């Protein structure tokens, strides 16, 4: 049997974020990206979501290289976790490498092997020959990949758009894409994020005029929130601030870190005369200050959210402030973003955001650009990537309508395996690739049962019932005691808890081991509280024998 190339997404398909792709041929593995995803509102207490990398960890000695397409969190945010278990070289462009190294230092992984690549480089990584082509995106130094394998040429678009006048960075190299197409592309994997958006994506430069209008109408400070890695947007805000004789202060740990790296590497131009320390903002007239910060996705500990909640340590929202949220809410973040905007309005700020004002353009290709890419590359097979399921389905449908339509489009999700050979492409046996939840410093410890407990706690609170027994007779030495949190107001409804103590005493009277008494108390008290209140608090019993 001829060997096949296994194409395995571990994340990033059927969702926004968590991008990670594994290519395996003849027991050799190439990894493309390792990103995180922001948790949806129902994942209580979860900080971020990353791919399940178990398949790779079990075959760590097979990994020949890790190629990163660009420096956004949804492509590099899980890289440190990967490198803790896989000792393989990482390949990235200059800016992407700089952003990765910041993460490595924060996670004390300074010994990782990282190589800087350019679009002129060719990597020979086992069975994989990797070439690079430039793409335009909302962060500079993004690349797409041409990967030659014994099973055929695979093209990976990375995140891209076709922008004839980008603010920072390079154009998408259409000539190189056409050249790859002429060589014969077996499989194209292409960004699907905007597959439901007609036309072509707007140029970043089209945002200059709306920004200038917002600056011209502002009477006080201007606060702009965007992604910390959206270097081109930061540059546009800096340019507009300079145009209106405003100073610039950068706030938020990730925004400060990314801007520093971008400045050092020459991807962001800000003169020292323009910059002011966040602690010195109060020394300048309000109409001469621009603040660039994190928080466009309503992240709990971001600078803008803390300002909106009045808990930023030195910045408070004032009535004449103008806040510009220059980003589109990632699906799942809408509730947090809307709450943040509401808080800003309550504090008297004037808020500009997508849907109300023209303050954001997408970094992803829309349908006309997606058609153009497919017709240039002319793939035999097509897999839409980077998008929710509807985006993948719409992109696959669009591909089959193109002038140079593929033979077949496959809609994959994390864990699916596409087997590619010179004879064709078929779906193979899938692997387990569930989302891995990160809570603080703990990775993968959050189970579905724990999440259900957190939901119960958020809905009905908890009740703790403690009883003290005679170790010889198992009889009560004193009345049971109950403490509740988030369940009822004990001062107004204390009689319910008093009656619950009687139920606990009845449960003790039936005797048995400590564990059986605990279980019985939890059952009896839980049922009683449900009958009395219609709610289902978590009930825990503590039995002490003395």
Give descriptors for this structure.
8-stranded mixed β-sheet; globular; 28 strands; 546 residues; alpha/beta; 7-stranded mixed β-sheet; 30% helix
How is this structure best described in words?
It contains 15 helices and 28 strands. With 546 residues, the protein is an alpha/beta fold. The chain has an eight-stranded mixed β-sheet with strand order 8-7-6-4-3-1-22-23. A seven-stranded mixed β-sheet has the order 9-10-11-12-13-19-21. A hairpin with a 2-residue loop joins β9 (122-125) and β10. The longest helix has 20 residues, at 490-509. The protein is globular, with a radius of gyration of 28 Å. The model has no long low-confidence stretch (mean pLDDT 90).
């Amino acid at each position: 049997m001829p060997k096949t190339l296994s194409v395995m997404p571990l994340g990033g398909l059927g969702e926004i974020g968590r991008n990670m792709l594994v290519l395996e041929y003849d027991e050799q593995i190439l990894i493309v990206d390792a990103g995180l995803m922001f948790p949806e509102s129902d994942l209580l207490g979860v900080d971020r979501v990353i791919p399940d990398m178990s398949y790779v960890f079990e075959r760590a000695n097979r990994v020949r290289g890790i190629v990163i397409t660009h420096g956004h969190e949804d492509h590099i945010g899980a890289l440190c976790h990967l490198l803790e278990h896989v000792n393989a070289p990482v390949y990235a462009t200059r800016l992407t490498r700089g952003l990765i190294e910041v993460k490595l230092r924060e996670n004390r992984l300074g010994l990782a092997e990282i190589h800087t690549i350019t679009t002129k480089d060719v990597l020979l990584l086992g069975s994989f020959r990797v070439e690079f082509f430039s793409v335009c995106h909302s962060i500079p130094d993004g690349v797409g990949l041409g990967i030659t394998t014994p099973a055929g040429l695979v093209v990976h678009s990375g995140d891209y758009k076709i922008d004839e006048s980008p603010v920072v960075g390079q154009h998408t190299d259409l000539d190189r894409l056409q050249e790859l197409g002429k060589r014969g592309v077996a499989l194209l994997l292409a960004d699907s994020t905007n597959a439901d958006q007609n036309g072509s994506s707007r140029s970043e430069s089209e945002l200059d005029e709306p920004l200038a209008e917002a600056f011209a109408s502002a009477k006080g400070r201007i606060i702009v929130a965007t992604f910390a890695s959206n270097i081109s947007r930061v540059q546009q805000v800096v340019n507009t601030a300079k145009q209106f004789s405003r100073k610039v202060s950068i706030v938020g740990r990730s925004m400060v870190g990314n801007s520093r790296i971008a400045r050092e590497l020459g991807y962001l131009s800000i003169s020292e005369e323009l910059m002011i320390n966040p602690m010195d903002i109060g020394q300048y007239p309000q109409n001469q200050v621009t603040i660039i910060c994190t928080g466009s996705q309503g992240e709990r500990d971001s600078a803008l959210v803390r300002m909106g909640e009045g808990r930023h340590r030195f910045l408070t929202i004032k009535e004449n402030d103008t806040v510009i949220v220059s980003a589109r809410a990632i699906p799942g973040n809408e509730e947090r973003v809307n709450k943040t905007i509401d808080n800003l309005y309550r504090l008297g700020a004037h808020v500009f955001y997508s849907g109300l004002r023209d303050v954001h353009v997408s970094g992803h290709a829309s349908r006309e650009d997606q058609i153009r890419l497919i017709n240039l590359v002319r793939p035999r097979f097509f897999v839409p990537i980077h998008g929710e399921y509807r985006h993948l389905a719409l992109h696959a449908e669009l591909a089959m309508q193109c002038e140079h339509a593929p033979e077949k489009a496959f809609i994959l999700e994390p864990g699916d395996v596409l087997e590619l050979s010179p004879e064709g492409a078929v779906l193979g046996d899938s692997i387990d690739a569930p989302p891995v939840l990160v809570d603080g410093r703990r990775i993968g410890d959050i189970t579905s049962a724990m999440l259900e407990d957190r939901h119960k706690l958020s809905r009905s609170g908890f009740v703790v019932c403690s009883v003290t027994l005679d170790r010889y007779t198992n009889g009560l030495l004193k009345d049971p005691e109950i403490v509740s949190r988030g369940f009822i107001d004990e001062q107004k409804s204390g009689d319910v808890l008093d009656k619950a103590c009687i139920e606990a005493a009845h449960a003790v009277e039936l005797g048995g081991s400590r564990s059986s008494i605990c279980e019985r108390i939890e059952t009896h008290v839980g049922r009683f509280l449900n009958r009395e209140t219609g709610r289902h608090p978590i009930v825990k019993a503590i039995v002490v024998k003395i």
